[in-house]
Amino acid sequence: MALIPGLDAIAYGGDYNPEQWPEQVWKEDVELMREAGVNLVSVGVFAWSMLEPSPGRYDFGWLDRNLDLLHRAGIAVDLATPTAAPPPWFLHRHPDAAPVTHDGTRLGGAARQSFCPSSPAYARAAAGITEQLARRYAGHPAVVLWHAHNEYGQANATCWCPVSAAAFRDWLRGRYRDLDALNAAWGTAFWSQRYGDWAEIQPPVLAPTAVNPAQQLDYARFSSDAHLANFRRERDLLHRLAPGVPVTTNFMLANCKNIDYWRWAGEVDLVANDHYLQAERADNHIELALCADLTRSVAGGRPWLLMEHSTSAVSWQPRNVAKEPGELRRNSVAHLARGADGVMFFQWRASRSGAEKFHSAMLPHGGTGTRIWREVVELGAELGRLGVLRGTTVTADVALLWDWESWWGLELDWRPSRELAFRERQEAFYEALWRDHRTVDFVHPEAPLASYPLVVAPASYLLTATAAEHLHRYVDGGGTLLVSYFSGIVDEHDAVHPGGHPGALRDLLGLTVDEFLPLPAGARVRLDDGRTGDVWSERLVLRGAQALADYADGPAAGQPAITRHSSGRGRAYYVSTRLTGADLAALTGTAAREAGLPAPVDLPDTMELVRRRGDAGTFLIAVNHGDTDATVPGSGVELISGAPVAGGFRVSAGGVRVLHES
Ligand code: GAL
Question: Is 308 known to be catalytic?
Fold first, then answer.
């Protein structure tokens, strides 16, 4: 099944903002798009004030002409609703729809995303322009995809205004029905917070000291849902008025903490993601792989669309380091390897004005004489040769539990150590597996696990009783589970699971934590097998588990540090300190072996290897992030060069190869 029914190639293109340019430029745009092999552009993402210059007065002439021009050139359109950037007239008329920050500051409008997600005035205005666009462009032959809004929650994830407060109370009434249930869930007996009337409840705004954590968790849920309601409103209008064309929006996996994308996964017709490298990080290609795997996982394993990445530097990091020659191609093919069926950029032509004029583009300020342009044209030609990958899927053998609620909970105030960090642990375990060439799916803790020989639970602080039972069944059925410290501690209301830590996982792990022993900044503990940990340690009492390594020093000297417990037909590992690098890799390696995974392939850990499979066979995608050439075993046909391969193929330093395996 094609990702986008109206498009019969790997999608290639980017955000196209014709409203920023005189119409004479459009002709050149389209000619150059064809030269680069562009087949899909996202149009109108921030064009609201050009489409509706004053409330209820519309100007669609320019968009009509632009879409017709694109269509004549054979370029398909992903038409956006422009609702991420309300025009100046909107806040002028509705000043109380401007977002308010945590400390009560009302924000201005001379930017984008300046609206409160719960504002009824915003909802009306956004529905108005969405309806006009849907009616006008329903059936337009160029439009193959709808792009609702842009990056929900990117700059206005959480609003703290009185309108949001009222919406929060409504949301709470829906969740708890009566105040007694809310008081119990929030533990309001603590610090005299018992509510006697719904009207007394406020958002968890800045207060003299630590704010009720359960209230903060619910505010995070409410805020994610407020954006989801805005998406649903637009999607439903588009489905009704312009049927037959899929509707999506661009996610920000895994860098957006504020949106619970598991709740959004089933709401979009296809999953699209934006990814930007953290330019100064040496291992940013591993972070890219993590985000791509998380995107595929949210897409339920189906192909997805890379809606935005950059051809080179971005414009919003402290130092906007440019990509090296060849990096744009490696990044693009790495996304493709992990299930993307399209590679798009922000943006087509670099802007002359505005906040993002120093952001790279497909067509730089310097035009077609530039390195970036040459690489963009080459990539377009290569993607044209990889069309056979479309619709194929990736099979993972390891699952990492990922839960936005756990992320929110773990990083609230007054945890036993400020160095408990969700992303850090996810990335550490992911990296260990990546370096062993393992392919990873991310799963919600309550999602099916039976197909994974190995499940890893990094930083799973918040775990519901249902999730814990589910993990227990997985292990008893023969699975291998690896759990990191400070997991299974609280339920969905941030209330401690009773009976001693880690309450939700105690029986499964065969131990209790007698005491948390967080380490001072910079301190390290040695284990008796030579490994060292930092940040955290615990005094464990084994109740059936067996120690694999003990602490050699530190506050738990002589006590177990890493354990293994047999349960049913499976086993559960536990690590009670923060291991990194090779020390952590040794542990994931042990668990992988016991899970029955094949030994890691004997290739440098800078060689990224992923397989996609489909009716046409299997495809081995190799991306060499190292600085020496390497040979990957395999036979078949290399698709970029068209060359036959017998026994092995060379991937040059910094290069990419795609083998159609025979
Ligand atoms: C994205 C956004 C784009 C552009 C880009 C720059 O977050 O969707 O519109 O601003 O960042 O990197």
Answer: yes
Residue 80's DSSP bridge partners are: 147
Mutational pocket test of ligand 1: of 356, 357, 358, 362, the residue with most ligand atoms within 8 Å of the beta carbon: 356
Query: What is the average pLDDT value for the chain, to the nearest integer?
Result: 98
Q: In ligand 1, which atom is closest to the CA atom of 151?
A: 8
pLDDT digits (tens, 9 = 90+) for 175-209: 999 999 999 999 999 999 999 999 999 999 999 99
| Bridge pairing between strands 524-526 and 532-534 | antiparallel
Determine which residue's CA is closest to atom 9 belonging to ligand 1: 346
Q: Known catalytic residue: 151?
A: yes
Q: What is the CA radius of gyration of the chain?
A: 26
- What CA–CA distance (Å, rounded) separates 178 from 166? 16
Q: Which amino acid is at 30?
A: V
Query: In angstroms, how far apart are the furthest CA atoms of the chain?
Result: 77
CA distance 97 to 262: 28
For the residues of 447-513, what is the DSSP string, one character each?
A: S--TT-SEEEETT--B--HHHHHHHHHHHHTT-EEEEESS-S-B-TTSPBPSSSBSTTTHHHHTEEE
Helix (H) or strand (E) holding 433: helix 422-435
Query: With a 6 A CB cut-off, is 314 part of the ligand 1 pocket?
Result: yes
Give the DSSP H or E segment for 431. helix 422-435
Quick check: bond before 162 cis, omega within 30?
no
pLDDT at res. 214: 98
Atom number in ligand 1 closest to CA 316: 12
Give per-residue pLDDT as tens, 275-294.
Answer: 999 999 999 999 999 999 99
Nearest alpha carbon to residue 309 among 14, 661, 617: 14
pLDDT one-digit tens code per residue, 224-264: 999 999 999 999 999 999 999 999 999 999 899 999 999 99
Please report the pLDDT score of residue 254 as a whole number: 83
Cβ of 347 less than 6 Å from ligand 1: no
Residue spans of alpha helices (H) in 73-139: 88-93, 120-137
Residue 364 alpha carbon to ligand 1 centre in Å: 16
Minimal-distance CA residue to ligand 1 atom 4: 346
CA atoms within 13 A on the CB side of 340: 29
Asked if the model's pLDDT at residue 1 lies above 80, the reply is no
- Which residue in the list 308, 375, 405, 492 is annotated as catalytic? 308
For the chain, list the domains and their CATH numbers: 398-594 (3.40.50.880), 607-661 (2.60.40.1180)
Share of the chain above pLDDT 70, in %: 100
pLDDT band at 211 (very low <50, low <70, confident <90, very high): very high
What's the pTM value of the predicted model, to 2 decimals?
Answer: 0.98
